[in-house]
Amino acid sequence: MTVAQQETLSFGADVNQLLELVAHSLYSNPEIFLRELISNSSDAADKLRYEGLTDAALYENDPDLKIWISVDKDNRTVTIRDNGIGMNREEVIANLGTIAKSGTRAFKEKISGNGESSDSQLIGQFGVGFYSAYVVADNVIVRSRRAGTQFDQGVYWESNGKGEFNVKNVDKKLRGTEITLHLKKEMDDYLDPIRLREIVTKYSDHIVLPIMMEKLDKPSDKKDDSETVVPEEEVVNQANALWTLPKSEIKDEQYNALYKHIAHDFEDPLAWAHNKVEGKSEYTSLLYVPKRAPFDLWNREGIRGLKLYVKRVFIMDDAEHFMPMYLRFIKGVIDTNDLPLNVSREILQSNKVIDSIKSASVKRILSLLEELSEKSPEKYAEFWTAFGPVIKEGPAEDFANKDRIANLLRFATTHTDEQTQSVSLKDYVSRMQKGQDKIYYIIADNFFAAKNSPLLEVFRKKNIEVLLLSDRVDEWLTAHLHEFSGHKFQSVSQGALDLGSLEDKKESEEKKSQFEKDFKETLDQVKKSLGDRVKEVRLTNRLTDSPACVVFDSNELTGHMQRMLKAAGQSVGESKPILELNPEHAIVLKIKHESDESRMTRWSDLLLNQALLAEGEQLENPAAFVKSLNALVMELAG
Ligand code: ADP
Hints:
The protein is of the alpha+beta class.
């Protein structure tokens, strides 16, 4: 290919769709194009600094990294230029012509495309930065040269954002990227330097790089017209690393703006913790809790982590070493004096400095959340709705902080009977009945299956609160969290019901042995007709309104767990349910006197199937169940 060869290429299909969505969704807030492009330039400077650590030649004797913004009113253009890392031809084509990012599909699925405000918040989460240019521009020209390449390796890229772009090589002396936006007719507003300055202050004050613009007050003492005046420029942002300032000097808006920059979020954060540590180790941490869960919260391999700076020099994004998995949604900055500038990800893997920053940072987040839960329950509720299920991974992952995490947990319970998870274990324990020593819970496939389970009948009657668990992670949580403030957790769907001293022992023992005698034969018959579909058939005192329920042995997988594992594609050894009958229920009393064997089989079938349905199981042969149910109804109806 000759150096200047021009190509016309098509955007990837994703880009076309995305361009439309972006233009549509950001229409009401076009000014953010500037923030997005500045942010890209700032990232490009960070990349140069990082690569420059090992290859100083990349600076090309021009070490002062900056961003320039200029306006050409006559041609109706705004130009954003940087002397960062730049791009070569392949990079320009790949970065601006396709979307290589995995989140794009998820993005398209989530977005409504109706221009709703939630759409623009979503766009923030997906970082579609560059394309926001087309909200204000009908033509965009990018000139770029990668640091360290020859002057003739410059690249020229141009597109009106309608399906195609042109690309060719050009000479470019200045390293870095220059983006020229030809503004749409109705976007004249952005030709006004004062307006542009306002936007810079609003969004990009905290960018560590100086952002330069031509001075507003043009020299008036110009001697004669023939003299060309080089316009003087000035820095229009604060250009300091916010986290290095004392807390008292930082306004909330500044904290918010920095958050939006580093998290690529459109919304303010929910809370933050800013700490400077001096003494044995020296570092600053600024940690943010977002308001909303990112689209890839459940992708455990997805991007997580904090920005790492060493002595204010940017080292890397997404340094996952500072946060455990269950806090993967935390965003922020760690700036330390205790690591070398050439630190690599490998070094970070096992490093004492990192370990101590990590454990202190986790404690800070836990304190922040504790404070939030005490002082702003509403905000905490918002937090829990977004991140609760992730926090539930905590007890398994972070043994040292298990108790603190347990205090942060919130649950739906039979006390509130609401789907919202709002009850803390402390609340639960404070409401325990006299003589109750266990924390009871039920796990089901969804909230309503839990709430309406027959297994709760006796608990409701005795006014004993039960945690209603239905998040996927709950089996994992209960497998690792065994007690809270001296009280053991007890599943109500596993093992025989033991209410301890909550039961009137004497009366129930007598009743029980009488029932055992009366029903011995019936239980045997039911077991015989069900065969190996059940492990055992026995009586229970946990039911008041329902005739039957199924439970599982305490050392076996529950039905819910089996279904979850199957759904995840794992093979599960089958654990058989135990069918429990309520000896005081009319149906059970009726079959006690059933002499016809085939009818007995039908009754047994009916009891087991309805118990399985209530438990959340799918019947192997639903049509047969319906048929048999109808036959019984017809018979009873006479
Ligand atoms: P994002 O910034 O979220 O990755 P963008 O669409 O804004 O998405 O940019 C795509 C890619 O283009 C960036 O990841 C970066 O590699 C490259 N890029 C954009 N702007 C610049 C720039 N000013 N200098 C160098 N590379 C850039």
